[in-house]
Amino acid sequence: MIINKNSLQPNSTYRLMLFVTSLVGTEGFSVLDFETAGEPHSGYCTPSVSEGVSLETEFTFDCYNWQDESIPLTYEFRLRDDPISYGKSPRSASTVLPAGSPEDDYQLPINIIIKNAVGVAVVETLFIKVKPSSKLDPCLSSIKEVGNKLTNYVIGERNELEGFLKKGEIGQACQLALSVLKEANKKTDCGQTLSQDTKTLLSTTLVVKLTSITPESLQMSRTIMAVVIVATGKQQDKTCDSCENIMNLIMVFTDKTNKLLLTAINDLEEPFTAELEESAASVTGCLTNILQSASDGSQANGASGENQISQKA
Q: What is the CA radius of gyration of the chain?
């Protein structure tokens, strides 16, 4: 008998009846009554400030008074679907964030997943306003200045990314990386954008630093791959000199993730979870970008070869 756990409601009572008929026609039945676990309740979450500036304001999100019989509770903080802090994290998380969209009045959703020991979760959503920084706007500051400010977050002496990594704060490091990438690749009203060299430097640096980490869990792996997917997206340079090395690093990292996935899948006591599904989707996203990069690189090399033949002719 297979029960779809997704069809079960929290804190509800169910009855299973099993009827059996033997080969000689004898009949029997059994009844099982059970109650599903309730979801965390009676708590709330709040931001330290409701409005700030991209990559300048440090937002702290705190949760209070959440209760449940199935303890301990875990808290996962996300910007939409991008992890900020995960797993057995404390009831608070701090991070910088990219600017919101002007179409949404610069509002960003922060989703906080509060989960009990048996996997029943409730989602608390906070909305905060994050305005663009004039210091990171190529329309208001020189492109060189903006590029330098963004690279200083991840490269150079005592950069913030390295600080997070040394303290083992992978979630905060990855959210900083995502914020930097999104600011570097955003469209501007005046049409001015960072040079492709600066974008490539940022993306390759982040991929190299983050894929060198051996993930301790599927959540950590998914958090890192969220950055890798953005760093290797369509907007990135597909003909960079280090692209082959970057693809190799990503392949090695996805292999590590696949081993974690296999371990989880082979654990008969561990049911199929959202973490498994999200991690598998992240691996697919990374591999899709790699295949696309390889395809674009081959086309670029083919076009270059055709130009050389044309010039010789």
A: 24
Omega of the bond leading into 72 within 30 degrees of 0 (cis): yes
The token pair at 193 is: 């954008």
Decide if 10 contacts 38 (C-beta within 8 A).
Answer: yes
pTM of structure: 0.77
Enter the tokens of residue 162.
């390295």
Q: Cα(119)–Cα(113) distance, rounded to whole angstroms?
A: 11
User: In 3D, which of 148, 285, 149 has the Cα closest to residue 222?
Assistant: 285
Count of CB atoms situated within 10 Å of the CB of 98: 24
- For residue 290, name the pLDDT band (cuts at 50, 70, 90): confident
Residue type, 288: T
Both tokens assigned to 158? 């005592």
C-alpha span between 180 and 139 (Å, rounded): 17
d(CA 2, CA 119): 19
Average pLDDT, the chain: 84
